[in-house]
Design a protein that fits this description.
This protein is mainly alpha-helical. It has a single domain, classed as Orthogonal Bundle (Arc Repressor Mutant, subunit A). It contains four helices and three strands. A hairpin with an 8-residue loop joins strand 2 and strand 3.
Length: about 90
Amino acid sequence: MADPLDVLLRVGFHHAVTAANADEARQRVQALAGGSLDTAAFHDAVAAAVAADLIRDPIRLPPGGLQCHWRLELTPAGVQRARALSGA
């Protein structure tokens, strides 16, 4: 499979990914990408994407919510990079 960060950005560009936790999110991203995605590589890619301001912090507690959830949301810089990766 390609670079996990690139995979994360491509999936986030084409799909809305929400999950109850990070492991479910990794499984969903892996299924959408159509390949195998190592847990550690996924976590490293998420951390790198947050640090580079390519995605927003994926752990969210919605207003009035009682439980956090995981959501993949690209920043404008992430959208720009995902477009470049996708050739769009």
